[in-house]
Amino acid sequence: xxxxxxxxxxxxxxxxxxxxxxxxxxxxxxxxxxxxxxxxxxxxxxxxxxxxxxxxxxxxxxxxxxxxxxxxxxxxxxxxxxxxxxxxxxxxxxx
Length: 95
Fold this sequence. Notes:
By secondary structure, the chain is of the alpha+beta class. The chain has two domains: 1-41; 43-95, HU Protein, Chain A. It has helices spanning 3-13, 19-38, 84-90; strands at residues 43-45, 49-56, 59-62, 69-72, 75-82. The strands form two sheets. It has a three-stranded antiparallel beta sheet with strand order 1-2-5. A two-stranded antiparallel sheet has the order 3-4.
């Protein structure tokens, strides 16, 4: 599902809301998650999962095309850990 499909589905299920308002809500939620992660904060959505940032140390890598060694700088990467409810639903366990 892509963002526009999510917005459409929420708008269809909540006929009292205008689609532009639903779009603004969805965009605000995503922006807040992004901003929190940029600050290094953890974002937990109960039953769904938790977004966090992991730091990868600098290392020496290898260019697969040439075999040449290259320096890979330290960087932060997003990490998502699924919640128990999501895992259970994906594995067909009813709650």
